[in-house]
Amino acid sequence: MIWAASLVVGVGLAVAGAPAEAQQKPPQVSKSVGKPLQAAQAAIKGNKWGECISQLKQADAVADKKPYDIHAINELMGFCAIRSNDYATAARSLEVGLNSGFLEQDQVPSRVRALAQVNYQIKNYAKALEYGNRAVKGGFADADMYTLVAQAYYIQGDHKTTQKFVSDWVGDQEKRGQTPREGALQLLLSSCLKLEDDACTTRALEKLVASYPKEEYWQNLMRSLFRTGGNDKAMINVYRLAAEVNAMRRPEDYTEMAQLAIEAGSPGEAQAILEQAFARKAFTDQREIDRNTRLLNTAKTQASTDKSTLAKQEKDAQAAKTGEADVRIGQAYLSYGQLPQALTALQRGISKGGLKNPAEAQILLGMAQLKSGNKAEAVKTFKATKGDEVLSRLGNLWALHAQQ
User: Fold this and answer.
1) How far apart are CA 182 and CA 205, in angstroms?
2) How far is residue 237's CA from residue 256's CA, in Å, rounded to a whole number?
3) What b/e readout covers 49-85, taking b as 16+ CB neighbours within 10 angstroms?
């Protein structure tokens, strides 16, 4: 990231012999440097930056300069150096002006920010961080300055500090109800990846999809969750979300989800995801095609048998004291697209209680509500997913998706 240093430096410096415009006489430069400084100011008016710098070098060569002379020369030098893209000279001159004691207090914040930018330009990252952090601590850093500091830490390879700095910044923005910058979240993600911190990586991706729900971010997030999703019960729910947000990119994703669905007693779900895979031509290797064709045929056979017994399953579930059977039949209805029946069964099962996995039941109910077009209720249901760390996180991600 590169900043064009935006800097305003006062050039109306008082030269000895010029009439005072205020009752309190401002500092004036000595007569010995007056002539080249006036020539430099004339060059500025004509946008002749090389001439300006040449005249200022003559002024700087004067032997008996006073402190204000040095300040005036460096202020103009910084101005002209910026305009001529000589950032190294600008950095030196502007720093002299900042530390001279003659700079007006209300000009200090902009000068500090300018020095952070100029030093970043010349890759003096230590100085860029010095002034950037001074702006942050002083409360006069804007979003560009925060990004500059984070970028400087990252470029130097200090990924741990980058991660902490950006996390604190993003957290502060979130508390104020602001949307974090996409670039800041990308820096956070990059730092987490460099640190090989999977939990940090997942959190960063979650923040990216929350504020910038791009397909690529969802895909990267689901890849992260595939690696850390946990047991089969958790993984089938990870795959359900991946299928919903179009993050099924590898052929094996479809195969794995289908197998998990069959094992979970949801052959209709297995059939649906494999049919989607074949429609998208996800399988290109003949062995993959043959293997998944067999798996699809198995899913179709089991789904056909399952459908023929739905009425009996429904009756048995209604008579059961706990809600486990209701949730299973609700899951089946959901997989076959029978949404009204799915909603009734899932709500009944959750109400009865006694569930082996109440968090999964919440997600299934939220999915049924979302597919029925009731986004508001789906969001509430997803956010109410508790009791399992992975499924609770998935519930929040489903809620994000439902709101987008």
Assistant:
1) 11
2) 12
3) bebbbebbeebbeeeebeebbbbbbbbbbbbbbbbee
- If phi > 0 it is left, if psi is from -120 to 50 it is alpha, else beta; for residue 6 that is beta
- Work out whether the CA dihedral 159, 160, 163, 168 comes out positive or negative: negative
3-state DSSP call for residue 221? helix
Cβ atoms of 206 and 397 within 8 Å: the answer is: yes
Angle at 183 (CA atoms; ends 180, 186), nearest 5 degrees? 95
CA distances from 198 to 94, 194, 214, 379, 388 (A): 43, 10, 20, 27, 18
Nearest to 349 by CA among 370, 337, 335, 332: 332
| Domains identified in the chain and CATH numbers | 1-15+26-153 (1.25.40.10), 157-212 (no CATH), 232-403 (1.25.40.10)
Structure token pair of residue 52: 């300006």
Element (H, E) at 253: helix 251-263
What backbone phi and psi angles, to 5 degrees, belong to 156?
-75, -5
Over the chain (404 residues), what is each successive 10-residue block's mean pLDDT? 40 42 68 93 94 95 93 94 94 95 93 96 97 97 96 97 97 94 95 93 92 92 80 88 92 95 95 96 95 97 96 95 96 96 97 94 97 96 92 93 92
Please give the Cα distance from 338 to 322 (Å, whole number): 22
Instruction: Report residue 273 CA to chain centroid gap.
Output: 31
Angle at 282 between CA 281 and CA 285, to 5 degrees: 95
Reading the block at residue 15, the tokens are: 């030269």
CA–CA separation, 121 vs 3, rounded Å? 7
Count of helices and strands (H, E) across the chain: 21, 0
- Other CB atoms within 10 Å distance of the CB of residue 172: 12
Q: How far is CA 188 from CA 32, 163, 201, 205, in A?
A: 54, 5, 8, 9
DSSP 84: T
Cα separation, 392 vs 398, whole angstroms: 10
